[in-house]
Amino acid sequence: MTVKVSHITHIDNLISILTQGCLWSDHKRIELGLVNQNIGYSHIKQRRLVRPVNVATGGTIGQYVPFNFCPRSVMLFVIHKGHDDYQGGQERVLHLISDIDTIRLTNDNCFFTDIHADLDYAEQIDDFTRINELDLERIINERYWSDFKEEKQAEFLAFESVAWHTIRQIGVKTQAVAEEVSVLLQAVQHKPEVIVRPKWYC
After folding, report:
1. pLDDT of 150
2. Which of 41, 71, 76, 77 has the most CB atoms in a 10 Å sphere around its CB?
3. Is 17 annotated as a binding residue?
4. Where is the DarT domain (predicted)?
5. How confident is the model at residue 1, as a pLDDT?
6. Which tops the pLDDT comparison, 7 or 137?
7. Are 125 and 117 in contact, with CB atoms under 8 Å apart?
8. 100 is in an annotated binding site
9. Confidence (pLDDT) at 104
10. 48 is known as an active-site residue
11. Residue 98: closest CA among 191, 13, 200, 192
C-alpha cells in the first residue's frame, strides 16, 4: 500500500524551495539563513529544535522535515482560525504531496510517530513494517477529529531534506492560487501536478 503524506507551506516559500531543490528541515533552513513565511506556532517549532529523536539517525525533531498522513490537518484548522504567529488564513497555503516509499528511496533516515511528534509520549518508529498500525481510514483521514486529535496528527519525518522531485502533487484551495503555482513551476524541470482541492481546507 502506498501511503501518501502531505507537507503544508505558504506559497511565498515555494520559490526558495524550488531554488534549493528540496524542502529543508527547520534546523537546516535556519543554518542556511533562508527566509521563511512561518504558518505554524513559533514556540512549538522552537521546542522541536531541541526535542530528541531516538530512532533513524537521531538528532532532534527540528532536524527532520515533517509530513502529515492526510491533507486538511489539525494545524490547517488552527491556521484557519488564526493564531498569534500567523493571521494570513488558508488561502495561500499549499499541500505538497508525496508518499513514504518515494521519499525513502532518496532518504534513508526517516521515521514516523503514532501521534503529534512534539508530544512527550509520542512513539518514534523507524520500523516501517509497522506503518499499518496507523488507522489511516477511520481516524487520520476522518473529517471530524475532536475525539482523536492527537492520533490525527501522526507524522512522517525525513532527516534534513526532502528532494523536490519526490513531490508528486501540489494541492491548493483555489484556481487562482493554482495558476500562481503553475507560473512559478515554469522555472524548474520537475513540475508536480497542481490540483484544486477546496475540500482539503476549512
Report:
1. 86
2. 76
3. no
4. 3-202
5. 63
6. 7
7. no
8. no
9. 98
10. yes
11. 192
104 part of the active site? no
In whole angstroms, what is the distance from residue 144 CA to residue 149 CA? Answer: 9
Distance CA 168, CA 146 (A): 30
Q: Which of 48, 51, 130, 160 is catalytic?
A: 48
Rounded to two decimals, what is the model's pTM? 0.94
Question: Are 11 and 88 a contacting pair, CB within 8 Å?
Answer: no
Domain assignments of the chain as residue spans, ordered by start? 4-200
- Joined together, the cell numbers standing for residue 132 give 499499518
- pLDDT value, residue 149: 83
CB 166 within 8 A of CB 111: no
Strand partners, 96: 7, 170
Q: Are 114 and 122 in contact (CB under 8 A)?
A: yes
List pLDDT tens digits, range 30-62. 999 998 998 888 888 899 999 999 999 999 999
What digits encode the pLDDT tens for the residues 73-121?
Answer: 888 888 878 777 788 889 999 999 999 999 999 999 999 999 999 999 9
Distance between CA atoms of 11 and 15, rounded to whole angstroms? 8
CA distance 155 to 118: 10
Q: Is 7 annotated as a binding residue?
A: yes
Number of CB atoms found within 10 A of residue 42's CB: 12
Check: CB of residue 24 under 8 Å from CB of residue 65: yes
Does 174 appear as a known binding residue? no
